[in-house]
Amino acid sequence: MIAIVDYGAGNLNSVKKAFDYLGADVVVTDQSQTVTAAAKIVLPGVGHFSSLRALNRSDLREVLLQAASAEKPFLGICLGMQWLFDGSEECNELAGAGIFPGKCREFPSWVKSPHVGWNSLTVLKGSRLLRGVAQDSFVYYTHSFHAPVLGATSAASEYGLRFTASVEQSNIFGVQFHPEKSGDVGLAILKNFCEV
Amino acid sequence: MLTKRIIACLDVDGGRVVKGVRFKNLRDAGDPAECATAHARSGADEIVLLDITATSGNRHTLLEVVRKAARPLFVPFTVGGGIRLLNDAAAVFDAGADKIAINSAAVRDPTLIGKIAGRFGSQAVVVAIDARKVNGGYEVFTAGGRVPTGRDVIRWAREAAVCGAGEILLTSMDRDGTQSGFDCELVREVAEAVSIPVIASGGAGSALDFIQVFREGCADAALAASIFHFGIESVAQLKHKLHHASVSVRWPC
């Protein structure tokens, strides 16, 4: 079973709908026992980095960190990916998971923010999550802050600068874009996650 | 590279897609769920569904239409029409919308923008503005274009952005359904006034119109209904032409 973690940040229907379409066994939950019992975890999220504070109010933060270190497949989407980093300048006082180093920052002032729409992926290295995804495939983004490119970056996109589109390290995966809204490319990525 | 978005719009009345000219003389254009899927398959980057009558009596019908249309859609899906309260928005999100569009209710109470953005994120809030040229300026109209507000479009767009809107959907009432081209002057003025994306709407008739509104109007996205519904141009044909005119679009997709 895949657990989609509901911590009150936005609308999780579309993520669930995409997994349902793929025939995956998936639940939306805010219960830490359900998250602990799940075989795989998806941490979605949209909006302000501070909405991740809800994870700290319950024991979800600890449960998620334990699951990540227990080699359970873990997919962070958008804000959920940003949480995997040290933090974000959008809310300096709130710590991320620190699994990947660096902080999420704003886009440079010469581009419009938020970055909304379909942008192309530059695949940088072999990735289990991006298996079968062609170079320059388009995915849908909507965000104001971006994560730095680092060794674990599996694909990048350009918007004023080059930023991390997807990140991957053993069982931990993160995507800044919305695979559930990225047409066939996005569905292929979610299918890969179901199969890792 | 970020591409220019092509958005297919479904104006829905009583559970059917309709399209008029300058908001009048509506013609039937099909079933919403079938139209949405067909446009997405053809390469539409987003689908917008607007309940153009939006009376309280047909809310239930609308939510059913949204639910049915959303199920097989895996591109962003925006729903507007008749959203007056946070709870109306919540019901539409629950039915499967990714974004909501608000128009009259936001003009009446701009704090509604922040209320919805606070719960669902700014990316989920599109402020729709119906604009008409009046005495050399552009005036905001509400209630499906029936009520002049006396408000200036540029100022309202700026205010909406400050209140937490994620995008502006800007419709030229003068061009709506005429297929005589987008109002590039209007779009450019708003696009330069706000930092959030501006979706141009009203007047799309040919690929050249899209090229102009992206180049001269500085639009981030362009929305059309008539040309797609009545088979003048499929989204795929349009994108193919834009791609060959060196407009950056999601193509092939």
Structure notes:
- The complex is a heterodimer of chains A (196) and B (253).
- Chain A is α/β, with parallel strands linked by helices.
- Chain A has one domain: Class I glutamine amidotransferase (GATase) domain (Rossmann fold), CATH 3.40.50.
- Chain A contains 6 helices and 13 strands.
- In chain A, the strands form 3 sheets. Chain A has an 8-stranded mixed sheet, sandwiched between helices. Chain A has a 3-stranded mixed sheet with strand order 5-6-10, with no helix packed on it.
- The longest helix of chain A is centred in the last third of the chain and has 13 residues.
- The radius of gyration of chain A is 15 Å and the shape is globular.
- The model of chain A has no long low-confidence stretch (mean pLDDT 95).
- By secondary structure, chain B is of the alpha/beta class.
- Chain B has one domain: TIM Barrel (Alpha-Beta Barrel).
- Helix content of chain B is 36%, strand content 28%.
- Chain B has 10 helices and 12 strands.
- In chain B, strand 11, helix 8 and strand 12 form a beta-alpha-beta unit.
- In chain B, helix 1 runs parallel beside helix 2 and helix 8 packs across helix 10.
- The longest helix of chain B has 12 residues.
- The model of chain B has no long low-confidence stretch (mean pLDDT 93).
- The interface between A and B is medium-sized, with 33 and 32 residues.
Key words describing this protein structure:
heterodimer; A: 196 residues; alpha/beta; Rossmann fold; three-stranded mixed sheet; B: 253 residues; TIM Barrel; eight-stranded parallel β-barrel; 10 helices
Short précis:
The complex is a heterodimer of chains A (196) and B (253). By secondary structure, chain A is α/β, with parallel strands linked by helices. Chain A has helices at 13-21, 32-37, 53-57, 60-69, 79-83, 183-195, and strands at 2-5, 26-29, 40-43, 74-77, 87-88, 103-106, 115-120, 122-123, 138-143, 145-146, 153-158, 162-169, 172-175.
